[in-house]
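job 3f2a | input accepted
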Amino acid sequence: MRPTVHDIAAAAGVSLATVDRVLNQRPGVRHVTREKVETAIRELGYIRDLAAANLAKGRTYPLVFILPASDNSFMHGLNAEIRQAILRSPAERTDIRTIEVPAFDPAALVSVLDELSRGKPCGIAMVATDAPEVRAIVDRLVRDGFPIVTLVSDLTGSLRHHYAGVDNIAAGRTAARLLGRFLGPRKGDVAVLAGSMVVRDHRERLEGFTSVMAEEFPDLAILPVLEGRDDPEVAHRLVADSLKNAGIVGVYSLGAGTRGLIRALKEKAVDRTLTVIAHELTVHTRAALIDHTIDAILNQDAGHEVRSAIRVLKAKADGLAVIEAQERIRLDIFLKDNLP
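job 3f2a | predicted structure (340 res):
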């Protein structure tokens, strides 16, 4: 059996009230008595159940999610998962709010983080924009005691506590292998649509993609990256212009703006001469899989990412360890045949 506060009190020869004061670091305990209690804690191997203690005290965890404001179906889905978490707040003892910042705007993100540093959130989850000024303020907040989790797009090299998202280099490599295998012996050009190269997830997907294409499929040439800013209209224009190149045999969409991509593909590729790999299962990409406009979707579970961020932020606020296996975000591959 696990030792209890009653065992500590008996071993130290003190009252339960004294044990409680020591555990909660409250004054009113003589130095010699405090040492007896701490010795008993060490010798018994007592581990405090902080979750139960916080429940008994009625503690609530104020958490903030920072998301990019954009017409992005995946981000809409992420927002919906956060709203579901808000509905669970009474049971999970959380107080969650969201803040939207302009997409791909490091200065706006820094401004929001600076404002939050003056408040008392016990945890911040953010879709990171990878820039030195963002890394600097994240490091300052962590040093000041704020638990920070990056969500979907990481901020490597910073002091952030955890990343809740897929391995994006592996995702890009997977996309390349799927595209290359689907195309078989065909030769030609591959168009790549990104949101922006200022976010790490897009850069890492491109890194993984180009690496496998160069190693395994040298007859397929990657064209200069199209940056659609996750805007369906911009994506439509860029892809439509690119598809005027008759040598294109494949398309990899590694960001959002997928509605614009799908519209351009339908306008140009009604004969299905293109092989297309994209990210994130949404109502639009699901329909495009079913009607053969897209061949495969790489997906990350937004609900798992939100739940993981909440678990990690609460654990960090309580000084508890994170169970890494529980927080690993899986990369799913969906074809028309295995849609959930």
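job 3f2a | The domain at 60-164+302-330 is CATH 3.40.50.2300 (Rossmann fold).
job 3f2a | closed
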